[in-house]
Structures are given as structure tokens and as C-alpha cells.
Amino acid sequence: MGLVNNPEGRLLFAVPKKGRLQQAALDLLAGSDIQFRREHRSDIANVKNHHIALVFLPAADIPTFVGEGNVDLGITGLDQILEHEATTPPTKGTGAEQVLDLGFGSCKLEVQVPEKGPYTHPEDLIGRNICTSFVGLTKKFFAELEAQQSSTNGMSTSREYLKTQIKYLSGSVEAACALGVADGIVDLVESGDTMRANGLVAIHTIEESKAVLIKSKHPSDPKLVDKIASRIRGVIAAQQFVLCQYNIPRDLLATATKITPGKRAPTVTQLDGADWVAVSSMVEKKKIATVMDELASCGATDILVLNIANSR
After folding, report:
1. What is the dihedral of CA 239, 241, 245, 251, to 10 degrees?
2. What's the number of CA atoms in the CB half-sphere (13 Å) around residue 226?
3. Residue 296 CB neighbours (<10 A)
4. Is residue 154 very low, low, confident or very high in pLDDT (cuts 50, 70, 90)?
5. Does residue 6 carry a pLDDT above 60?
6. Is the alpha carbon torsion for 19, 199, 78, 241 positive or negative?
7. What is the rounded distance in angstroms from the CA atom of residue 145 to the CA atom of residue 56?
8. What's the DSSP call for residue 39?
């Protein structure tokens, strides 16, 4: 393997070495019982209980290594995958395959301009200076804008001959407008605090992003890839759901199970009293307070909510 010569023939799993996705990715690995110890300054860590080596890489590089088959699995942002594909379109044998939405890292890639500036629509920036870390997606976006404008005027354009000047910055993109380097920027927005602190406002969303698990089209150990994906899927389900248990009169069971239908179906157990049953059902964590209110209103008692450590 080109990257690290595939240590001991292990399956290679790329993880962000820093940044907004790293800690959540590490928590996901811990929940999946992927045990490792990373030595100081080392970007490779052998997993103790699986034939896997973790490779710590910049999130932006992970789609390249996975897509070219140097690494088998990876966790990165959808924004990074789309940026890679904008500059290196996938083929039958190259390019990463998305396996799983990981449920964290949500953000938007947005066109931003000075709040008190003259620009209110992305079309206003055609022919202007744009700074970004996402050159491929930004060129694609403005090429499409320019093409629309040119078709209206009976002209033609291409990404190679953009009127809009796209400039690459590796960081601090939000400062470009204030420093006079750019008329607008294209950058990721999570909460929007950094954008507002720099006097910027979003005028268009190019892409929405989230953390995803990706795999090579030709992994070295497909069965192990499937096992790890299954474990991660279970951890995600455990993070998103809780187990709700309650007692309910049998004649009210149909009403209660409409409130708690579960992922497939609720588990119903007969109690000693012939007229009562016990119900167990998985409920989305974010909805549990409302569900408990509705259960109590329809006659359920002894309502318990239990955390789920893992699920399959």
C-alpha cells in the first residue's frame, strides 16, 4: 500500500487527525469497541482487538486515500467527498463509496458576503474575487451560474474560463473580505457565530454536509469492513434512541402503541393481572419527553426510560 505499506497486512481505517470531526469520530470508535493506543506524534495506531490499523489524516485528504484504494475505510465530511469528486470525478474503479451517515458534523457550505456590502445574490458575485478552501465546488457552482447568465445572453462559458476569480485559502477564509482580498467567500457554517462575528451573511447554500463513513471500492477485507460498519451503525442507533417501558391496560394498548411503535414493533408482555400488559419500545431520544406526556395522558403507568449502550 502506498501510504504506510499496510502495517502487518491490517485493514486501514482513516480517522480525522484534528478538527471539528475528530472527537466525535473517536467516541464512535470507542463505542464500537475499537481499542487502540496512539503514540505521541504518531499518525498510525494498531487496533488491539481487530486486525485494523487506524491512520490519522487530515479530513480533506481522506476521500483521496480511500478513493484511490490506499485506505479501506474512512470517516470524513460529506463536504470533503464532494470537493474531491469535483476535482477528481470517480470512475468504475476509483472513488469512495458512502456507507453510513454518522449523525454528527452537520454544517452548510455557503456563499457569504459582507453584511453591509452591495451583494445580495450569488449572481452579483460573477466576475468578482471569491476566497475559499473548497475550490472545486466553488468553481463548479460559479461555472453553472455563469453558464446560466451566458445562455440568457446567447454566449457560452466553461469552468476553465471563469470570469469569477476563485482564490484558495487554507484557513481564516472569513477574514478575506475584511482584509480586501475577496468580495465574497465560500466556507462552512455550523452555528453561524464565526460568520456573524466577521460581519458576514450567507446568501446561498451550495451544499449541506455531515460526517459519513466511506469505504474503498476494493477493500482488502470486505467482511471486516461490514463488521465495523455494523458496529458503528449500532452505536449510532444507541445514541439516537432510548428504551421506553410502561404498563398499560390491554384495552388501551392499541392507542399506546401508536405513540410508541418502535423501530419494528413494540414488545408486549402479559402481566399477572389479566387486564394489563407491559410494553417495551425504542423511542427517538429527542422525542421522549413528548412521548412520556402522551403515554401518561392515555393511561400508561410506571413509565421508565432507559439508555441503550449499543444496538444491532
Report:
1. 180
2. 4
3. 12
4. low
5. no
6. positive
7. 37
8. P
In the DSSP assignment, the letter for residue 179 is T
| Contact predicate 187/173, CB 8 Å | yes
Contact 66, 216 (CB under 8 A): yes
C-alpha cell read off for 113: 458576503
Q: How far apart are CA 81 and CA 137, in angstroms?
A: 10
Model confidence at 159: pLDDT above 80: no
User: What residues have CB less than 8 Å from 116, skipping those under 6 apart?
Assistant: 199
Contact present, 74 and 66 (Cβ < 8 Å): yes
C-alpha cell at 71: 485506505
- Please, how many CA atoms are within 13 Å of residue 278, restricted to the half-sphere of its CB? 10
Closest CA to 237 of 62, 28, 42: 28
What's the mean pLDDT in 236-260? Answer: 95
Q: Note the helical H segments in the chain.
A: 22-31, 62-67, 78-87, 135-152, 193-197, 222-240, 253-259, 288-297
Rounded distance between C-alpha atoms, residue 88 and residue 148, angstroms: 24
286's grid cell = 429527542
CB 262 within 8 A of CB 308: no
State the burial class of residue 262 (Cβ atoms within 10 Å of its Cβ: 0-12, 13-18, 19+). middle
88 phi and psi angles, rounded to 5 deg: -135, 85
Q: Is 85 helix (H, G, I), strand (E, B) or coil?
A: helix
**What DSSP assignment string belongs to 200-242?**
EEEEEEEEEE-EEEEE-SS-S-HHHHHHHHHHHHHHHHHHHEE
> Exposed (0-12), middle (13-18) or buried (19+): which is 301, by Cβ within 10 Å?
exposed
